[in-house]
Amino acid sequence: MKIAIVGAGWSGMAAAVAATQAGHHATIFEASRAVGGRARAIFHENSNYHLDNGQHILVGAYTECLRLMRWVGVNPETALLRLPLSLPFVDGTGLQTPMWAKNWSAPFDALLAIATARGWNWSDRLSLIRASLAWQYARFHCPPQQTVAELCHGLAPRVLHELIEPLCVSALNTPADQASATVFLTVLKDALFGIRGGSHLLLPRVDLGRLFPEAAARWLTERGHSVQLGKRIRHLEWSDPYWLCDGESFDRVIWATSASNAALTLTQSAQAAPESIANSMREWAQTASNLRFEAIATVYAKTKIQTMNARLPHPMLALRSGVDAPAQFVF
After folding, report:
1. DSSP character for 105?
2. Any idea what DSSP says for residue 39?
3. What is d(CA 256, CA 170) in angstroms, rounded to the nearest whole number?
4. Element (H or E) spanning 49, and its range?
5. I need a surface site. Which of 86, 113, 123, 242 has the fewest CB within 10 A?
6. Is 311 helix (H, G, I), strand (E, B) or coil?
7. Residue 209: CB partners within 8 Å, gap ≥ 6?
8. Cβ pair 203, 113 in contact under 8 A
9. Residue 260, helix vs strand vs coil
10. What pLDDT digit, counting tens, does each position of 260-292 carry?
11. What is the CA angle 248-253-256, rounded to 5?
12. What is the rounded average pLDDT of the residues 201-210?
């Protein structure tokens, strides 16, 4: 089939690669002049640097992401720095799985990290181990309306402040008192209790554009598919048996933009669509419009020239956050 993918972010490029793997022809439309969406490199002219915009960390449980990277020619072993689960603070305290246990099977590597956490007393450690075993016994299920804060109310305060809250913010982008415990348990199950190496931190050695979307764009164009940058699709219309993207016909359309953009487009498109599909489009658009979002803020710090040889003690450090210090990690 002839498939249009609207949006060349990570999801759009992943959809395009998957569609071509299934034997279809893909045309990707991207409104901006670069692929990658929110997670890509941005050239900062004043500093002459390429800066990463978006999340800058993966974990070993991202097996499908790693598979797609390999498919389009990116070697995760050279593009990513693989470290055992470690969330150290600048003073040396916090979770730090020993390197010699890097290849331990799950969940023993995570349990070792908990048991050897520096700065935690045995009461702190045991509270997390007991909770982890209880979550595993319940098969990582909980009431659907439960928050992460409610799920973890029995944990020691230090564990809450130094592990659960920053992990929740980084994984779900939502404070613990608002975040879904169901989603959080899914993250823990996949990362800490899933496959061997699922809890490993994968820190990019290259910018986020080079990590996947740029390689995917090259891979697609080399195989005869089209990646059209600077092309904003303004009209989506159903004309049986095709979908029209600004008048061009396609068998299927994958709309891979932000939820707000997709909701607006489908609401407009539903006005001219037959009732057989218009109601579904309106219902989906209404659901997407009701979603709430939290902002991610990334701060870049540039060292003075005479201190350019300075390095952090670890590639990634945890920060003690609060109302006056709303940051969780530094890279």
Report:
1. P
2. S
3. 23
4. strand 49-53
5. 123
6. coil
7. 34, 35, 36, 40, 41, 50
8. no
9. helix
10. 999 999 999 998 888 888 999 999 999 999 988
11. 120
12. 89
Q: What angle do CA 148, 149, 154 make, to 5 degrees?
A: 110
Amino acid letter for position 43: F
Count the alpha carbons within 13 Å of 63 in the hemisphere toward its beta carbon.
8
Alpha carbon 16 to chain centroid distance?
Answer: 18
List the end-to-end C-alpha distance of the chain, in Å, as a whole number.
43
Q: Output the CA–CA distances (angstroms, integers) from residue 23 to 2, 215, 223, 255, in the order listed.
A: 10, 19, 12, 19
Phi–psi pair at 276, nearest 5 degrees: -60, -25
Beta strands in 179-324 (DSSP E): 201-204, 226-229, 236-239, 242-245, 248-250, 252-255, 317-318
For residue 237 the two structure tokens come to: 């219309």
**C-alpha–C-alpha distance, residues 162 and 39, integer Å:** 26
Percent of the chain with pLDDT over 90: 52
Say which amino acid occupies 155.
Answer: L
Q: Distance between CA atoms of 62 and 251, rounded to whole angstroms?
A: 31
Q: Which two three-digit tokens encode residue 115? A: 């048991």
Q: pLDDT, tens digit, for every residue of 77-105?
A: 999 999 888 888 888 888 887 777 777 77
Task: List the structure tokens of 173.
Answer: 């982008």
User: For residues 70 and 80, what is the distance between their CA atoms, to the nearest angstrom?
Assistant: 12
Are 94 and 318 in contact by the 8 Å Cβ rule? The answer is yes
Residue type, 270: A
Cis peptide before 98 (omega within 30 of 0): no
